[in-house]
Specification:
CATH class of chain A: Alpha Beta
CATH architecture of chain A: Alpha-Beta Barrel
Number of helices of chain A: 15
Enzyme class (chains A, B): oxidoreductase
Number of domains of chain A: 1
CATH superfamily of chain A: Luciferase-like domain
EC number (chains A, B): 1.-.-.-
CATH topology of chain A: TIM Barrel
Strand order of the largest sheet of chain A: 1-2-3-4-9-10-11-13
Keywords (chains A, B): Flavoprotein, FMN, Monooxygenase, Oxidoreductase
Radius of gyration of chain A: 23 Å
Oligomer: homodimer
GO molecular function (chains A, B): oxidoreductase activity
Family (chains A, B): Belongs to the NtaA/SnaA/DszA monooxygenase family.
Chain lengths: ~450, ~450
């Protein structure tokens, strides 16, 4: 058996995942709209031979702009720009199935897959905020089940569109003037509950066939969807035990759905804070936490817990009578994660805010590069992860520290690539290019026709 | 009065605007999905100091893939990639108001404006094909009037979103931890017939404020829309007289709408076929026409004329009993242009196909570089054009010929820039950055509040 290799994604966000990162002397508070900032980050990640970079997204302005960088460039156009200035690294963006039409979105991802030479991935989300709904003609957030039903059909349509050109459809025969073989275009011909899409995509089948499909929600609906469709899963777990349980659950669900569990990669988020010594790392983390404006963060926390800010006291634990996850509409798993973290470690609201400010519920790990590498191997070797979603607290310095100091250790131990061996994102993640089922259907139908004629 | 300067846009499409261009030995029939091809074209246009490059679009597969390159990358992601590999040239893409949501599209254009440093333009279309409607849950094409009513409101919402951040909204004050001034974010708060959009955009106001707004339809509804909103108009006229009439009509309509007519630039399309001698240019044009597969082109022509192909005879003129433009749903002005061209020059269907194959109804001009420059000046100086939409029959060679041989003549005569003098697309076209009306409204409201308090 060959050595199992780690997969690493860099989750890029403004000046870093710590909400106060923009206040450090090194940070440019205007970086969120600067493509040069993201191009620099993507190149650093590529220097470290990471599998991919990733941008989260929601089509609404989150909260207010008071205390932390808000607003960001739409991520699919950011990926397209980064494709032009990088050569190897995978490029993943979030896009919502609730607030897009499949023809438009399938087309954008297919286009980026072409222009990046097969490096695109789509983090499929259903978008759980009322703010977004109200930007798209709705007064209320559609409920969880109906959002996931739409997502299911959306993906079905998107796959039909990605497969609507046979890989062999383009002939380019200058002699006869035949550019394409019309028989090898398969219109979507989809008539479902949410979508009616008649035609073929107007983009030839892309290098990867389909973009890498990523999923990140951990609600019951989210896990069911991931087990059926996701090829990589970004997840947030705080403890080894939780992560092992999640990992085993996803792999079991994938197998039950008839999929190869090795084709569903689980990547927990980690916020590494790296220092020359453990004390230095802890001091950087503490400095960042001191820069959080507590009263402001309290408002955000109250919103996530569906409470009024007056119900929270900075120097006490969370109130006892919180709702159950089932009563929460949207961002269910985030809600439960926050409450579990606070209860387990008996954190005051102020302490909880510090923990959440660093990685919004993801695991924060402060230490030396060796310690970070050990923490990675512990989860990787103990059935909790196939790799990690790296969420630097500060960007670019936190990503540089990871790439220049942690990655060489992972490489020395033979568990991470020293050069890219493939050209596509699917190849980086060790995943196959999907066959085109439409072609088989078309061939079968043609064979039937010939047989009928022969009788 | 300073010398009036020409504006030049390069309209990029696959291997060129002539439908048989892909069959030339120099052409790569696979270029339509290759970003390197478009990057090369954009760099050639930038070498020629052109104002902009432009990509047309429709969210459907046009016709079949048999006889000419079909399918293309989604143009907003193409612009984003080109922004990363060019420095000066403007980047314009078509996008449909009928098959997009304003929040998504306003956001993508604002994002590309940021990442290009203020170089984006939007060609606003309502998309006149049944094929597209059937990709977006509709059984029929929405009628002309309702598409334009939606476009009108779409643009109104888009402007509210582009103006939803004050230019001064970001403070970036590390000392106090105040990143932004919440009072300087103005939610769209839009509740109309077609759209309800509550929030602010999640992208700060972009370098140009709004993208350059372009329009290209020449129906009555299209001209009315252009006069109200467009800053540049791509148009198709075959004769000087037609072009003068269109030009005068648009300028009059703009003035009647209270706009400065000089702020509405009219750019007729021209397909220049350039040779060392006139004979050489004509031979290149003839060679291209010989490569058209007539029977195939006949099917496309019949579709545009809403006829059955059997009603057309390659060696006769168009049938006498064609419908009137008013009876045509969608692409009205294209219909009339084709019929007028055929009737005026008494063309057989075969001859008409040759003329349309070159530029789909735009003016084709074959000659030496001097002759092309003269043809440009004739229209420019005679009240027919503020510049031109250059549509090379073959790409890249036709664009290279224009840039390297025609542009120097335009420059020598002092009518075209020799270096870029501005940094944004608006500056290239001599157009102002829009003020933010939301700011004035907010200030007035604040002043009223203070006065009321003072009483």
């Amino acid at each position: 058996m060959s050595t199992r290799r780690l997969h690493l994604n860099a989750f890029l966000m403004n000046t870093g995942h710590h909400e106060a990162s923009w206040r450090l002397p090194e940070s440019d508070p205007y970086s969120s709209t600067k493509i040069a900032h993201y191009a620099n980050l993507a190149r650093i990640a590529e220097r470290g031979k990471l599998d991919s970079v990733f941008f989260a997204d929601s089509p609404s302005l989150w909260g207010t702009i008071g205390r932390r960088p808000s607003g960001s460039l739409e991520p699919t156009v950011v990926l397209a720009a980064l494709a032009a200035v990088t050569e190897h690294i995978g490029l993943i963006a979030t896009a919502s199935t609730t607030y897009n039409e499949p023809y438009n979105l399938a087309r954008r991802f297919a286009s980026i897959d072409h222009l990046s030479g097969g490096r695109v991935g789509w983090n499929i989300v259903t978008t759980a905020t009322l703010d977004a709904a109200r930007n798209f003609n709705l007064a209320e957030l559609p409920d969880h089940a109906s959002r996931y039903a739409r997502a299911e059909e959306f993906l079905q349509v998107a796959k039909k569109l990605w497969d609507s050109w046979d890989d062999a459809a383009i002939l380019g025969d200058k002699e006869t003037g035949l550019w394409g073989d019309e028989r090898l275009v398969y219109p979507a011909d989809h008539a479902g509950e949410h979508f009616q899409v008649a035609g073929a995509l107007n983009v030839p089948r892309s290098p990867q066939g389909h973009p890498l499909l990523v999923q990140a929600g951990s609600s019951e609906d989210g896990k069911a969807f991931a087990a059926l469709h996701a090829e990589a899963i970004f997840t947030a777990q705080q403890t080894l035990q939780e992560a092992q349980a999640f990992y085993a659950d996803i792999k079991r669900r994938a197998a039950a759905a008839g999929r190869d569990p090795d084709g569903v990669l689980v990547l927990p988020g980690i916020v590494p804070v790296i220092g020359d010594t453990e004390a230095e790392a802890r001091e950087l983390e503490a400095e960042l936490d001191r820069l959080i404006v507590a009263e402001y963060a309290l408002g955000n926390l109250a919103k996530q817990l569906k409470l009024d800010p007056s119900e929270l006291d900075l120097d006490r634990e969370l109130p006892a009578n919180l709702p159950h996850e089932d009563e929460i509409e949207g961002a269910k798993s985030r809600f439960t994660l926050i409450v579990d973290l606070a209860r387990r470690e008996r954190l005051t609201v102020r302490q909880l805010i510090g923990r959440l400010g660093g990685g919004r519920g993801h695991r924060t790990f402060s230490g030396t590069a060796e310690q970070v590498a050990d923490a990675i191997f512990e989860w990787f070797d103990d059935g909790a992860a196939d790799g990690f979603n790296i969420m630097p607290a500060v960007l670019p310095s936190g990503l540089e520290a990871f790439v220049d100091r942690v990655v060489p250790i992972l490489q020395e131990r033979g568990r991470f690539r020293t050069e890219y061996t493939g050209t596509t994102l699917r190849e980086h993640y060790g995943l196959a290019r999907p066959e085109n089922p439409r072609r088989r259907e078309a061939l079968e139908s043609a064979v039937k026709g010939v047989l009928a004629h022969a009788r």
